[in-house]
């Protein structure tokens, strides 16, 4: 049948499809296809990509629009219905919590089955396991006392590893390891976790230790090499800041030597994390100008020493401006760097990256600043993340591509209009320019509007 269709494409007209995306600029980063095509979808799969006319139950005129694989966000902390709506309106069809991870893993997946707007998945997290075993009082994402302030006893380490292993047994996509937030986890504890991940042949998604970037990179790359395990280093732009070129040189060298090391970046000059976390230990003694780099999202105020100390007692997420536009353009254009959001938002308050990462890359850095080509940006947002996971998750082999047989996870956007709208003062604003987004062949965004009641999202697990 496939040979007949190749020889006589007019036969495609007779095929009825559930959805046809007609006349769009189809861009597939795997094959390099960049041409006007019609896309036919049947059920949850792409069934045809053709120059011939197609007939569908739902016919969408995509003339003048880009038809791309749905974006895959490897680093999305907020995994809630609210957050998924922002993701969908930003072209994201799969959002994964891989840096911090979750624990218990099976409970986390069960809570989202059949209820999710977009696809979801997680790693087995060292941080939540450590918090539970060590009775940390932190109630949000990160530890605030025991799990960050004292070393784990040998028995606690055993229990932490057992919890992480249980999550890997239950299909977690890898191991989440936030060493910067558990600074009392010594080198032996960390290396042991790499060996644990190696037993399952799954990646370690790591937030390096704070401090000297070279030393921090050397630790995790050496551990990955010793354990022979894939390594993914999160948000290199905020972890390395002014040392990003040097960090990229080290990662490139490791890759050239045959190590499986990847990294990611988000398109903002400010980071954000919990003010009670280890990232802000000792800040009380910083000079006044350092506090002026901090912004408190609920009020939009820049902090002073006094307000910093008050909010640190209270708890909450704080933004820190520590990068430059030049550094962002350089890291986003680097061939081995993926796009990931590190998204955090709740009740419309958070970092704008939770709502606008992908539109910002496409609008500001591709169209306006011309820092990278459109096809590269699409690849960094879809194909490259899929390839990072496909060896342990067969589902990902059918995502991040636009080809016959692939999952119908598709983002359709206006490249002339796409842009982020979210700000630090008002993070709860949907991106502009995404006209249609399909997850597993179902519209979650149609005509630029969210589709109420849609829940086609599937769990993404390791197999």
UniProtKB/TrEMBL annotation:
Record SUPFAM superfamilies: Composite domain of metallo-dependent hydrolases (SSF51338), Metallo-dependent hydrolases (SSF51556)
GO molecular-function term, one example from the UniProt record: hydrolase activity, acting on carbon-nitrogen (but not peptide) bonds, in linear amides
InterPro entries: Amidohydro_3, D-aminoacylase_insert_dom_sf, Metal-dep_hydrolase_composite, Metal_Hydrolase, Metallo-dep_Hydrolases_sf
Domain Amidohydrolase stretches: 60-294, 332-445
Full protein name: Amidohydrolase family protein
Organism: Candidatus Acidiferrum panamense
Taxon lineage: Bacteria, Pseudomonadati, Acidobacteriota, Terriglobia, Candidatus Acidiferrales
